[in-house]
């Protein structure tokens, strides 16, 4: 393939832009036990003129997404300095957003979207027990009406934030979907053209600035150290930037939670439900959660940037049966969401991608919710393991606590 152009953002020192303090990454944890080992994909290898190098890369991706559902991506075209500028903007947001903007832009998750500002009191518009983290999410309407839908303090920097999201979508995610299309033995642009949504810098998906602050005793007692319940992402791919504060954990095949290690500058790529189903279960949507960090990081703030790539909303959730891989090997029906999906589609039409994501957002549960996080309510025991049990559109989802 022709070499991908590197990211070239608008200048940070254009007239009218206030000075922004640099983001200084906090120290990484000194703890080493209980960390996952993820495969790392060098995206620049896609540009190799040697077909054997590209073939090896596709095989490496195939293995990583079947085994782990998570992988590191490196050499994707954004430098560490450019990335740290984006973290500095997120840090600037949480230092400068006004109380008035927090109120005016407060999210409406009950509508099935995260668009806007999430207060640090749970996943409902109504404030609940403090959970200590804030988010701002940009969806299509937020890009289209920045003057009214984006915190005022960020207005001077929207050229940089928008360019960053366009590059993540149109270059990084597009190349990633090319690799995944090749694993399915489909044309390079199959997933980009037929599954990925378009029409804004984030398509029908969204970009997030999140800030997790250390929490007090009330929250720690209520959530038992959890910051976000175990879940799979509902979309196509999630691109999250590796950060020094280790809170992200993945559920291993050994049925234990493992921290994802810090790899400076790398993207952590995570497969969503849509891609598991499109791939006929050949790709694995891995369960993950956000948990308290190791003890030497308990008092640090964790800043996080994430891009959630979504599929076309009207598309039914179905396997790409044109895939020669699926035609030859069939679907992999013994795991996760695909297994439940098969049961559901024997008795009715599959949900659309929009239905699937909106129901999950609208009914999202809080780790601090002691009323529902109990056995017999939202929890059950399977093979001696406490599981969080949810049901969306007739599909049961069981997640380890
Ligand atoms: Fe997630």
Describe, in plain words, how this protein is organized in 3D.
- The chain has helices spanning 51-67, 80-96, 99-104, 140-144, 146-149, 158-183, 190-194, 217-223, 273-278, 324-329, 336-345, 353-362, and strands at residues 40-42, 70-74, 116-118, 133-138, 206-212, 226-231, 237-241, 248-251, 257-259, 267-271, 288-291, 302-309, 379-382, 385-392, 395-400.
- The strands form three sheets. It has an eight-stranded mixed β-sheet with strand order 1-2-10-7-12-5-4-3.
- The longest helix has 26 residues, at 158-183.
- Helix 1 crosses helix 6.
- The chain contains twelve helices and 15 strands.
- The mean pLDDT is 93.
- 30% of the residues lie in helices and 19% in strands.
- It is α+β, with helices and mostly antiparallel strands.
- Strand 1, helix 1 and strand 2 form a beta-alpha-beta unit.
- It has a single domain (40-375), classed as Jelly Rolls (Sandwich).
- One of its GO terms (biological process) is small molecule biosynthetic process.
- This is Gibberellin 3-beta.
């Amino acid at each position: 393939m022709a070499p991908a152009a590197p990211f070239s953002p608008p200048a940070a020192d254009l007239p009218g832009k206030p000075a922004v303090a640099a983001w200084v990454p906090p120290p990484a944890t000194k703890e080493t036990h209980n960390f996952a080992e993820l495969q790392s994909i060098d995206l620049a290898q896609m540009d190799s003129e040697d077909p054997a190098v590209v073939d090896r890369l596709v095989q490496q991706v195939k293995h990583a997404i079947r085994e782990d559902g998570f992988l590191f991506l490196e050499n994707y075209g954004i430098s560490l300095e450019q990335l740290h500028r984006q973290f500095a903007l997120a840090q600037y947001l949480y230092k400068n957003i006004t109380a008035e903007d927090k109120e005016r832009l407060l999210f409406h998750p009950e509508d099935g979207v995260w668009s806007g500002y999430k207060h640090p009191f749970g996943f409902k518009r109504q404030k609940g027990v403090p959970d200590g983290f804030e988010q701002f999410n940009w969806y299509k309407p937020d890009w289209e009406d920045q003057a009214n839908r984006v915190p005022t303090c960020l207005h001077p920097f929207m050229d940089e934030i928008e360019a960053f999201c366009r590059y993540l979508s149109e270059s990084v995610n597009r190349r990633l979907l090319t690799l995944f299309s090749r694993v399915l033995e489909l044309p390079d642009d199959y997933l980009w053209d037929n599954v990925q949504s378009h029409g804004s810098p984030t398509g029908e998906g969204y970009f997030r600035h999140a800030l997790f602050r250390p929490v007090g005793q009330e929250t720690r007692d209520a959530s038992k150290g959890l910051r976000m319940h175990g879940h799979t992402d509902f979309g196509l791919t999630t691109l999250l930037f590796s950060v020094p504060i280790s809170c992200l954990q993945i559920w291993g095949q050994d049925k234990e939670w493992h921290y994802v290690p810090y790899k400076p500058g790398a993207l952590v790529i995570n497969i969503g439900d849509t891609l598991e189903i499109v791939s006929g279960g050949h790709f694995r949507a891995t369960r993950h959660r956000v948990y308290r960090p190791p003890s030497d990081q308990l008092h640090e703030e964790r800043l996080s940037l994430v891009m959630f790539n979504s599929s076309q909303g009207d598309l039914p959730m179905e396997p790409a049966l044109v895939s020669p891989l699926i035609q030859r090997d069939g679907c992999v029906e013994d795991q996760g969401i695909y297994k439940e999906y098969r049961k559901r589609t024997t008795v009715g039409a599959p949900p659309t991608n929009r239905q699937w994501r909106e129901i999950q957002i609208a009914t999202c549960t809080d780790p601090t919710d002691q009323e529902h996080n109990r056995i017999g309510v939202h929890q059950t025991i399977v093979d001696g393991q406490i599981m969080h049990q949810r049901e969306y559109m007739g599909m049961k989802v069981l997640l380890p606590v």
